[in-house]
Design a protein that fits this description.
Elements (H helix, E strand, L loop, with lengths): L1 E9 L4 H9 L3 H9 L2 E9 L4 E8 L4 H10 L1 H10 L3 E2 L11 E3 L7
Antiparallel strand pairs: 1-3, 1-4, 1-5, 2-3
Length: 109
């Protein structure tokens, strides 16, 4: 299992839309997350900075392939057409990233 964290900005005028969407995530999107070997997925919001922090545990063996399969899913693509306009990618993210992946520097159970 691999713990993964990521961060992105949230447009202030889209906060309520984003919260509303995530209060009722489509079952097809939740199913795709599970099929992509992602468990224990949470998104946190830090205001007033309007930063979203996402965390999940990846239980597969090929994250790149699972992420590509998720990105190819038509229902997930439709979901992202609603959520992506709410988000503000960080300027310091790596090429090819929308959410900026983070390095784990500490963990304890």
């Amino acid at each position: 299992m691999q713990r993964m964290g990521m961060v992105i900005g949230l447009k202030p005028e889209k906060i309520e839309d984003y919260k509303r969407l995530h209060a009722d995530v489509w079952p097809s999107v939740l199913n795709q997350i599970a099929e992509s070997n992602i468990r224990n997925f949470s998104i946190f919001l830090k205001e007033p900075e309007n930063l979203l922090f996402g965390y999940w545990e990846y239980h597969g063996s090929d994250f790149k392939a699972d992420a590509a399969r998720m990105a190819a899913d038509s229902e997930t693509q439709k979901w992202w057409t609603l959520t992506d306009p709410c988000q503000e990618p960080l300027s310091a993210r790596k090429d090819g990233e929308f959410w900026a992946m983070m390095e784990e520097v500490f963990h304890v159970d």
